[in-house]
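Q: Start with the shorter request: fold the first protein.
A: Done. Sequence, then structure:
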Amino acid sequence: MTIFANERDSGNMSVETSEPDRERQAEERPIPGYADFKCKSASLELNRLEGGDVLVVSKLHPGFDDECVDDLTRLLSAISLGRTARPKYLVFDFAHRRGGEASGSVGFRNLVVANSELILEAPVITVAWVRSFMAGADFEFACHCAMMVVERGALFSFDGDPDRLFGLYASLARKIGLVKTQGLMETGAVLGAEDMRNLMLAKDVIEPRRGLAAMGDYMRQCGRRYNAAYAIFRAQRSVMNTIGFSAEGRTRV
């Protein structure tokens, strides 16, 4: 059974969490399980899974507002610089409900870069755990994690203003090619979990379970293969840098 650092019921992490309850906690508060951090964003919750090797950051609202970007930037910096205990896996749990604009505020681009480069700076594998409707900034951020795990029933939207989706377009083009990416975006396609796995964008498709139960079981299995997985994902990121692609979506010169 998964044990949470803040000893809350795992059901609190479900996408069914009451939005008004979250908003009433919008004032600055400690992130559960990490006493050194203060979280300004009501959209974030942080837990450690049993054993402490997996740190889970659950996003309860779509998009990345100023407070969310600031919180995540400070957390990534602390892990990168070793100012806090480093987990083996840093899981971004996209647990938001469908609805609302999934946009990124000022600083989002730097956050994407920090997330993408973390595996080169610390022995930490970033995981996008997807169980909701993904679009815009959420989709882009997930693409810059080392691996993506998708719960059956999750959906991914390729629709939107091309100018605002440039970062997502660039990330997908590197992974599946320009032609496929252009076709998906021109038609505004919405793909399911199996489609994402067939495109090799998702590593695995998992049956959904309430709270973090499915995540706990899956991450325990990953823990047995951590050394090999870390070496592979780090090499992939190094190769991307070597051939000149940056997380900002531009080719370096």
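Q: Next, the second protein, separately.
A: Sequence, then structure:
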Amino acid sequence: MTSQSAIYNLSKLICLHASEWDTANNMADFKDEVLAIYQKGIDQEEVAEEKQAMTEARDAKIVLLEDKIKNLCFWDQITSGDIIAMPQRREAYIDSKYNPKKRIFPKGTSAEEILLGNEFDELEKERIPRQFPSDSNNIYHLHPIAFVEHMKLICGNEGVIEITRKWEHWTGSNYNSTTISSFEVGGTKIKGYIAEPYGAETIKSGKDKRIPVGTYNLTWHTSDNFPKNKYVKKGRPILENGFPKLYNDKVSEDRGILIHVGNDGEDSEGCLLPGKGLKKKDEKVVGIKSSTDMFYELISYIEKNGINNVKVMIKDEI
């Protein structure tokens, strides 16, 4: 199928049919279907020796396939009940809402943690216990990407700094050329612009190029070049945790892609520079402005929500 609109529409279907992970309990039907497919090829062969060889190969592959299916299927092993025990879920709930840097008492004994525990207990009373449909192997199948995209519409992409690359400014040298994006933080009113280096995406360091589109995790970073007091001389507060650093399975932490203050590609070798407004020259977008204000607004948001609960998602519309 090559029609993108048809593919898109089909991805929205929710289909009710037998789970593939229960095939072992329906091996006879599945085996008959596979045999019928092989038989078509065997019937078309006219040479007796070749026909016999194909029949033997079919039988050997059926044996291997049966063994593989039996080892992979797990449907009859699933039972009702919690996957994660209540005490562990309670602890995870508290940890997700409590900043451990504030902890001065033993874990779980502070007033705030006790209140969060009580909050979890009240929510637990309304929770419907997990029930697994062991009496049927018919389940609903959803397109995974379409499902995620729909959940983003429902949840508003909360906790995601969504960056959309829109403009490029070439000066004649990669050193001070710039990629400019708009961004917004899901579930908030925070929005602005981002400046990055110009040029092709790369996962390699030392190239003065922007990072690939994708979703990134964040962690805190400090170094000699980026200390916590970097902007104190400008009259700005010390950065209690340092600078946010991006990474994922393709772009390692070692590349050192930070979010910091700057206005155009000259101020970055791959890092993201946030700003409140666009800098223009002859009506053309060439960079961003009010970077320090926007930087501290993002820092406040990340610290409040916890850096492990914030992602950066970059997409391209250039």
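Q: Describe the second briefly.
A: The longest helix spans residues 48-72. The chain has a mean pLDDT of 89.
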